[in-house]
Amino acid sequence: MNELATKLSRIRELLEKRKAGALLIRRSDNFAWATCGAASFVNQATDRGTAALLITRTSEYLITDNIEAPRLEHEEQLVEQGWEFHITPWHETADRIEDLRGRAKLAADGAYPNALDLSAELIPIRAALTLEETDRFRKIGAACGKAMDAAIRSVRPGMSEYEIAGELAREAWRLDLQPIVVLIAADKRIFSYRHPLPTEAILKEYAMLVLCGRRGGLIGSVTRLVHFGKLSVELQRKSECAANIDAQFIRATRPGRSLKEIFQVGIDAYREAGYPEEWKLHHQGGLAAYAPREIIATLETDYQVISGQAYAWNPSITGTKSEDTIIVGEKSNEIITAIPGWPTIEIQDNGGVIRRPAILELT
Questions:
Q1: Most exposed of 62, 77, 244, 282 (fewest Cβ within 10 Å)?
Q2: How many domains does the chain contain in total?
Q3: Domain limits for position 57
């Protein structure tokens, strides 16, 4: 069964389970998932696309206007994929959804009049990656790492955070990645904010760069830090502790374990490192795929890890952070955003060695 057939089968199994006859997909992330990577959005600042999908027990419809239809047909190749197009002139308002669904009970991937909201139930379905998605995700992760490496090695004291953000976004776009999250902090801002939107602040000696890069709907997350001059003893220790906590998260992320179990492993690692309260200052990450975090782990998250899923953990100790995207394999985990040649901290225990990124020191 190919990727599209697998996804349509999963959708129809969900419809059967919920006793619904049709699923309406309007969110751009779900659109990308269901179409194996097609883009329905024009405005990246909204989660709604300019096209919708309606999947019934027997048919697959694509509903859009005459502006978007040519691109979706020719560049995204969705007619070839098997979607039946229903096109409305952009200046008219025709309710194609009601016409196409007939008397079938309607479900949707969000709030919609008289429809059953299945948004939460779609998350685990779309996060269970197919073999084709896993292969694409590896390439996306490698591209995120490459974009980060090129951008951060171009950073120099005297640059503003805006300029650094521009470099990171440019490198992402150059590699066919949409930079949907770009966070930059220079010097003291790294110690003040977990989500530092770039500002006009000028870099003196220490910078943190964060990228969430999207291609075909899938999103890789990666963070790296660069320091000009010798690291202080305190910052070196914090970096090593954050790396160790990250390694414990990664090592614990194995099939059959719940996110609350893994989260507890992380809390214990914070305590053992001497920073028992730091985890409360920022979420620690979780399940990833068509959102930077499909599910954020907490002590109450019962969701269980399965092989083939992607995760991104991001433990932070004030002034430093460790983050990469991994794919859970049957026997081991694969770090897909690793940067070849980047300095690493080796975390070794009975489970073997996990290499986590160190702070890049430049003179």
A1: 77
A2: 2
A3: 3-126
Beta bridge partners of 288: 310
In the chain (363 residues long), the average pLDDT of successive 10-residue segments reads 95 97 97 98 92 96 97 97 96 84 92 96 97 98 98 98 98 98 98 98 98 98 98 97 98 98 98 98 98 98 97 98 97 97 92 93 92
- Give yes or no: residues 98 and 136 share one domain: no
Helix/strand/coil for 126: helix
If we measure between CA atoms, which residue out of 105, 113, 93 comes closest to residue 26?
113
- What amino acid occupies position 254? R
Among 66, 92, 126, identify where a domain stops.
126
- Domain CATH for 26: 3.40.350.10
pTM of the model: 0.96
* Token couple for 258: 């719940």
| Residue-by-residue DSSP string for 44-94 | TTSSEEEEEEEEESS-EEEEEETTTHHHHHHTS-HHHHT-EEEEE-TT---
d(CA 319, CA 86): 52
CA distance 279 to 90: 49
The DSSP bridge partners found for residue 54 are: 24, 61
3-state helix, strand, coil in the chain (%, to 5): 35, 30, 35
